[in-house]
Amino acid sequence: MSGSGPHSAMVDWYHSLSQRQVLWWSVAAVAVPLAGSALWWVSEQSLNRFAPYQYHYRPGTITEYLSQLLSKHAKRRRRNAPLRVYMDGCFDMMHYGHANALRQAKNCGDVLVVGLIPDSEILRCKGPPVCNEQERKLQVETVKWVDEVITGVPYDLTPDFLETLFTKHRIDYVIHGDDPCYLPDGTDAYEHAKKMGRFRMIKRTEGVSSTDIVGRMLMCTRDNARFREERRQLAKSFSRGSVDPARSSADAGDSSQEHGRQHQPVTISRFMPTSRRIVQFSSGQAARPGAKIVYVDGAFDLFHVGHIEALRKAKQQGDFLLVGVHTDEDVQERRGPHLPIMDLHERSLSVLACKYVDEVIIGAPLEISDDLLTTFNISLVVRGSVSETGRDGSDANNPSSRYSICQQKKMFRTIQSDCKTTTATIIHRILENRASYEARNAKKGKSEQEYYASKKQYIAES
């Protein structure tokens, strides 16, 4: 009984062919794609060699016009339907590692939407945050690569919340670093996004984390504007990069209460600055001719909302904001041997990431000279009304010594700082809740060590 339908007809046709015809059809099936590939390769390699010169791609020809036309079309399509990417986080004590993650996330799309986890969720999953939600929101909003901020987002990305992101907020991809992010039950916080194929991974910025910064402060107890004498041995160990706080405290002659506290050995990460990182953070724009250049300087240690408020008001005074970041040695001389918490390049990157800043002088001189004013064509020098106190309890930004030349030239102005937060404020918050932060650091540090010891892989940075 013969079959019917397309399959049977194909079988009958195949059997009706001779062996020679089958061979020719097989050769043709292979030869035609090969010939097409060879023709394409020859045309690519030989176009500029054999084609008339007027058809070569070069500026001023029709080929350049066509390429520009297609580029404009692509940009127009991206403007009408931009690729929206989402990154969430606590962003507690905003540092250059956070900023670099946001920079990489922005490179994954056209519009970067940041989800800010509320204080209640951080307390539930990690422990008490150092900065409150309002402070963290301001710090995220002023990062130059952030376009939108969503508040009140959950710590774990449930299927329901992901659906809200994809529909209400029109998110295309969820972004996170290659470092671990586990929920209290031990599961991956981004598991659902990965299963849906809507997850993109970026490289974590090594050498810094909020856990690391808290550890730096916990190992150097600060009393008012200076560190206690009995902590000097601990500070020496801290400066070498690795320290067991319990042992160092005993060596330093701390109290019996300090001896009885259980500590985890802490390893301080080493930041290795590169020229590429500076270029990535810099806007690369010079001041236009005739622009009013405003200069403000300082330590900018543990970059916080007080710094942001001062920079915002400083930028309002002119067209181009130039920021001078003082050297580690100058900061130590003014504020004590155990400061700054962040080194010069770390502090410079944090300042560069702020959207109000146009350019940074890395290692600016403490006293403003005629030469500095002339070299950078500075029109106005400003300072905030709120500043850190020196190691002797005096105002570390005393205008009579540092700004005397500016005052003589009538180009100095003090701007009123409504925000009273200082670096000392952040350090005191850590020390007042020391036990909670030590427990949080021990838990976070253990998970990070396990991950980087067994699961870490190379991820190319965007």
UniProtKB/TrEMBL annotation:
Residues 86-215, 295-385 form the Cytidyltransferase-like domain. Residues 234-269 are annotated as: Disordered. SUPFAM superfamilies: Nucleotidylyl transferase. The chain crosses the membrane at residues 22-42. It is an enzyme of class 2 (transferase). CDD domains: CCT, ECT. InterPro entries: CCT (IPR041723), Cyt_trans-like (IPR004821), Ect1/PCYT2 (IPR044608), Rossmann-like_a/b/a_fold (IPR014729). It comes from the Eukaryota. Gene3D superfamilies: HUPs (3.40.50.620). Its EC number is 2.7.7.14. GO terms for biological process: phosphatidylethanolamine biosynthetic process. PANTHER family: ETHANOLAMINE-PHOSPHATE CYTIDYLYLTRANSFERASE. Belongs to the cytidylyltransferase family. This is ethanolamine-phosphate cytidylyltransferase.
